[in-house]
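Key result, reporting period 2: structure in, sequence out.
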């Protein structure tokens, strides 16, 4: 049974128990807490389990190109959204539907900004190969896992690496080894000295040479790529103090210790959180649309409070995601 509203508002249900709806939302949020807690704990256990003195610990934020400032900015955006939702609830409680609608729309805009930043990060990581299954694995010297990697998934990564090496220093390699003749002859020793001074060309020269000799393995090439980019990164930390130019990162498919594990944790946690944020946007979009149509009234207050609880949960969940994914 419903009661018709004279001002055109949506009909209010009769006989409903707002307290029961509130309890249902808390029970639902309890299951969501268990879900996120389980996944975050699993990622933390994996991260602690691979840490050690073998040179193959968990990748740092710098190695994975994760910008903690973007993560903090997204946290601030979600907190702003939570404040706006709380104010919208207060406005609707006071009967100010216009202000409640504006605050809901502002909260949705904040969520859109969050998703825009996350979309940028996903696009950047995908473009550079920092995605599950696309990162070269770096193992400790003599690790048994390296042999399995070399005979299986590592072969695909090595195939992706070869064109990058060819573009970096393939011509110089062929000229130095005599496989190709230069229009203007130059001494191989002089050319090799020039190649050795360039991190990218030196990397290409070494790995292409091992490929030609039939000695290249995916794990060995991955370690060389990792060590070369680490040397560039460490060198760049003192570039400003020494008044010299920063070296660009070597443009090859990335290789990191436990890189694919890190990427899996990032995709699962950030992806799951993003899905929940979209769900929260849909939940708040319903009263926001009702407000734009002039149909938002006190009869929607219980619904808005429950949707607001879900939004606040999504905001808090981001703290755990940030600490696991961005902090390193």
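The corresponding designed sequence is given below.
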């Amino acid at each position: 049974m419903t009661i018709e509203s004279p001002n055109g508002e949506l009909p209010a249900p009769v006989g409903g128990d707002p307290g029961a709806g509130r309890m249902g939302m808390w029970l639902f949020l309890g299951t969501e807490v268990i879900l996120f807690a389980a996944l975050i704990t699993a990622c933390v256990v994996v991260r602690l389990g691979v840490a050690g003195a073998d040179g193959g610990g968990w990748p740092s934020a710098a190695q994975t190109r994760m910008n903690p400032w973007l993560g903090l900015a997204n946290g601030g955006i979600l907190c702003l959204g939570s404040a706006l939702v709380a104010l919208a609830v207060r406005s609707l409680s006071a009967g100010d539907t216009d202000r409640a609608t504006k605050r809901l729309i502002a909260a949705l805009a904040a969520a859109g900004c969050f998703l825009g930043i996350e979309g940028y990060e996903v696009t950047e990581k995908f473009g550079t190969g920092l995605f599950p299954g696309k990162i070269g694995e770096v193992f400790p010297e003599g690790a048994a896992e390296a042999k399995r990697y070399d005979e299986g998934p590592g072969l695909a990564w090595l195939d992706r690496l070869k064109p990058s090496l060819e573009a970096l220093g393939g011509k110089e390699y062929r000229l130095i080894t005599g496989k190709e003749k230069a229009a203007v002859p130059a001494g191989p020793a002089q050319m090799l000295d020039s190649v050795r001074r360039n991190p990218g060309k030196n990397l290409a020269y070494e790995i292409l040479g091992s490929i030609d000799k039939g000695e290249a393995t995916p794990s060995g090439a991955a370690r060389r790529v990792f060590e070369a980019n680490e040397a560039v990164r460490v060198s760049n930390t003192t570039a400003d103090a020494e008044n010299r130019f920063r070296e660009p990162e070597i443009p090859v498919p990335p290789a990191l210790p436990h890189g694919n594990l890190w990427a899996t944790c990032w995709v699962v946690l950030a992806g799951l959180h993003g899905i929940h944020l979209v769900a929260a946007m849909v939940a708040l979009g319903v009263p926001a649309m009702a407000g734009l149509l002039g149909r938002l009234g006190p009869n929607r207050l219980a619904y808005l409070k429950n949707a607001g609880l879900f939004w606040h949960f999504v905001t808090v969940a981001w703290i755990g995601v940030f600490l696991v994914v961005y902090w390193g």
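DSSP finds ten helices and four strands in the chain. Residues 259-292 form the longest helix (34 residues). This case is discussed further under Risks and Mitigation.
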